[in-house]
Each structure stands twice: as structure tokens, then as C-alpha cells.
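Dear colleague,

Thank you for sharing your sequence with our group. We've completed the structure prediction you requested, and as agreed, I am returning the results in plain text so they can be pasted directly into your records. Please verify that the sequence below matches your submission; if there's any discrepancy, let me know and we will rerun it promptly.
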Amino acid sequence: MSRNISLLSGKKDDKNSLFGKISVSPNDTSDAQLAGEYNLGVSTIHSTKSFYDFLNEDFKNKKAYVCTGSACMCRGTQEDVTQKLKNKLGEDSVGEMICLGRCYENSAFYYDGENYSGDDINQLDNILAGEHKSLPYTMKSYSETSFLVENEIFSSFEDFKELLQNCFETDKDELINTLKDSGLRGRGGAGFPTGMKWEFCKAQEAKAKYVVCNADEGDPGAYSDRYLLEEQALKVLFGMVVCGYIIGSKQGFMYIRGEYPESIDITNEALAKLRELGLLGENILGSGFDFDMNVVEGQGAYICGEETALIASIEGRRAEVDVRPPFPVVEGLYKKPTVVNNVESLAAVAAILKHGSKSYKSIGNGRSLGTKLISLDGFFNNPGLYEVDLGTSLEFIIDEIGGGFNADIKAIQIGGPLGGIVPVDKLKSLTLDFEVFAEAGFLLGHASFVCIPRSFSAVEYAKHLFAFTAHESCGKCFPCRLGSTRGKEMLGSAIDNNQKFSEELIYDLLETMEVGSLCALGGGLPLAIKNLLEHCSDEFKPLMEK
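Please find the predicted C-alpha cells below.
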């Protein structure tokens, strides 16, 4: 059934996704018209609508939304934010969102198409009057060669044009070899070599191919993709155009999470300017290469950060994870070969192709190469977004870049809600790279840093992670859908009713989720829970059966 929906969705046209149309379909009548247009049952449209938080009628009726991400939760700011919004807008006018990418100062909320944080909550009268703008956050590169933060690569659209022309004059295999030689790997968590992925897709014989940017950065604590889309959009878009050129694609999609309204607006503005300058569209720079791309706005589903769920979403299906193989490079969007890359991976391409692979692979420890953006939350004295060399010690990141902590911290969750939780006494023995983290039993992921203060219960944090997964699960596989719910119930009963749980039972539950889940949502959660059980055992033992 899902395959038929994919094929029908792709027959209509390439540029305007079915999901985009579903998202703005206002009523049952328009749903029925849309279903007829695509030869689908109206139940398919309704099924898709029911999947997403933002398409829920109760959600739409709210006036403002409070961030409930891990960083804001640990900081303890959100109860005050919620109450102030309710006092100003009405008791039933405030909803919730996860996460708004304002982890550097917390107190985050969304109102009227913009996100706010920090002291903004005390400026509600000015915000409601449209007379207030948030303060900027710190962005800085600590790398000797900056690939992501500085503006030398593209200080203007003319720079974009010049580098693109150079790429058109270079053999495609040579471009791929440059990326492969650089050692650039996916920055969304999996770490798959970017050049190799493009090479695999280029080798496929197909009438149509697609390029998809996974900008559904839903990891609480991470805001690196948000920065790139809002401050370095040309780098990201360049990576997509070059990818399309290499693999033989005519169409790309930017899937940007709806929680980042500013990112969506800025990206659309950049796309319009590129079209105006002839750098998107037909026969770009007289090369004979046709390529365009469009933004698809996410509607509140963390699972869309998983590539097959993201593809399903663009197609207008429920964002459920697909079984692999086949992988997207063989059978992806509309069942055609597709490259799906993370924002940060795409943004690095321009500098690599301009400066050569050696400049990139000379950075790092020989295994994890290049630079990485890190997101430091409000518990650091110097919160903000920084570019560092892979292989940089966490001691330098915490003490020199972050300026130390402004509270008593017991652990940091690095890499989002599915990342490992590193106790404070182990932090300074690690370096920032994929292999060292994995060997120590943790996960680098997006390299977001969410600090857990000593005053915050480790059991409560574990319950929060189970609840997050239960809410965000696509529901396709039992281990994730049921396992996360049982974990939330188990810890909830222990906290609220002093109903002790079995250590054997919780580890059995975690093993089932780890081994049996279809994707990293259910399969990755156990890592964080196990870290907490091991390193904060003194907080769990009183709640366990003897």
C-alpha cells in the first residue's frame, strides 16, 4: 500500500510535494479533492493528517507554544514562561513544541511565526505589538581553517556562481573523488561517507533522481542546522546543487522543521534570489543542467529526522520508518534513487571543493576528519555555537570554549535524546570524535551538549527520555512503540507511587528495544538509559526491587 502511495504521489509533479498540499488543506472537502487529484482514498489524506502534531486542530487553536526540550527542562525555566504566557494570552491559549533551538539561553517560546528566548518573556507587550527582536547568540570558529562559520567561501552570490561554474568545468568523478578523499562523513549521526553516498547514487540508472536535505533537526540541545540555514544558507544550497549535478538529478527538497520559522523564511528568500540570478532552474550557467529545489515544511514529528520517515513524509504518507534495504540511493523518494544528506554535511561541500580535500582531511585525528559544529546550552558560562576540529578534547571545549559551568553539573547528554549521557568525571577524558565516543560507550551525533544539573533527578530524566520516545515513535514497530511506553510507565509508577521495579526487567526491556527496533529512535534510546543506570545508580537503587 505504501509503495502505491509513493508512486502515485510522484506521478503528479516533482516540485510541489503532496505533503505540502496536505498540510494546508483546510477541511474535508479540500481533502477529498486532493485525494481525487492523486487517485488516492481520502482515508490516506486523513491518516497522514492525524500523524502530525501541528495538524491537530487543538494544536492549531493555540496562540503561543512553550519549548519542552531537554535543555529548557533541565534549566527549569519553562513553568514561569508558561504562566506568563497564559496570564497574557489566556489559560487555554498556550501549547507545547519540542525544541525551538534556543538552548543557549532557554526560556524559549514561539509566538506568531517567530521564536523567542532568554529575557524575551519579559517583553511580551512589545512582542505582541511587533516591536521586539531577540538578541543574537555567540557563533565562533576555533578551527584554524573554518569550513562552516566564516563567510569567505560565499560573501556574495557572485562567489556562489564562480564556484559553481568551476564545478561544471570539472569532471564529475573528480568532484566525487575530492569529497571521498576529504573524509567528509554525514553529520546527522550515522557518519556515512558523503562522497561514497553520492557515488552510489550516480551509478544508478533511472529516469529521475532526487536530492533531499534533512533539515529536521529535532534533537533537543542542537541548533547547528538552524544556524547554517539562517546564517550560511548559500553553503547548504550549494551542496545540494552540486549533488544534483553529480548524480543527475533535476529536483531537490529542503525538509525544514516547522519549529524553525526563521530558517524557512530565509531559505525561501535565498532560493528565490538564486532563481532570479539563473543559478537555479533551466540550463544553469549555460551548462545544460536543469535543477530546482523547494522547501517542505515539517509539521511537528521528530521521527522525520530518520531518512526513510522523511521521504515518506514528503510523499504524503504517514512518516513511518521503512525497512532497509533497499537504501534511498537505490530506491528513495517516489521509489527513485535519492541522496539524503544532513545540513552540516552539505554545508561543508563548498569549502572542500574550493580549497581541496587536503585542507579538510588534515584536520582531525586520522579517523574522524574535518570540523564539527557544537551547541552549548545555557549551563555554560559561554553558551553558543562553535566550530571545532574533530579530535578536540572535551576539557578544552568545556573550560576554554564554554568557560566552565554556571551550576553544579553531574552529567551531559551529548548527541540529542538518543545520545549517550556522560558523567562529569568522565567528560575530560574524551575527545570530540565519532570513534572515541563509541569506544567509551557514548554517541557523538549532532554534538549538542545538554547539561543535567546535580539537582535534577536522573530517574526523572530517564522517564523524560522514555516519554519523549513514546510520543515521537512512528508506531510501526512494537519494540519502540510499546517499549518506550512501558518504560515511561515503569519509572512513573516508581516516582509517583513508590512502586519498585525489577532491574532485570528494565534491562530486558532495553535489550528488546535495542535489538528489535526498526530505527535509531527505539534502538538508540537504551544507550542513554543504560548510561544513567550505570553512572547514577545511587538514584535508581532505592526504586528497585531487592
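Summary note from our side: Residues 478-497 form the longest helix (20 residues).

Kind regards,
the structure core
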